[in-house]
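Sample pair:
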Amino acid sequence: MGNTYYSAAAAAATAADEDEEEKKFGWVIGRTCAAAAAAAAAAATAAAAAADASAAVAAKAKYMLLQMLLLLLQQQQQQQQQQQQQQQQQQQQQQQQQQQQQQQQQQQQQQQQQQQQQQQQRRR
């Protein structure tokens, strides 16, 4: 009977040890899962930060492209204005030349008339 008592006590002790081991094992698993969840959350946060940074870089690049496009359009407009001014200046020069030619023609006509008058006076 004493052996049975000792056997029961040994079985109870073994069961208690196994229960303690299971608790430790469960605690380790729980801690491992918590650490894995924390790592996953950190990775998700890092991915979100990277996405935000990527979006910020894309927005900055888009802004810079729009600025360059605006600058190119302004330069094109300035060139067109300069061309128009040059054309206007050329037209003015042509008009001045035409006026000078007309004045020269008038002077020539006047000279011819004067010469004719002088010739007529000499004949009289």
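The two ends are 182 Å apart (CA to CA).
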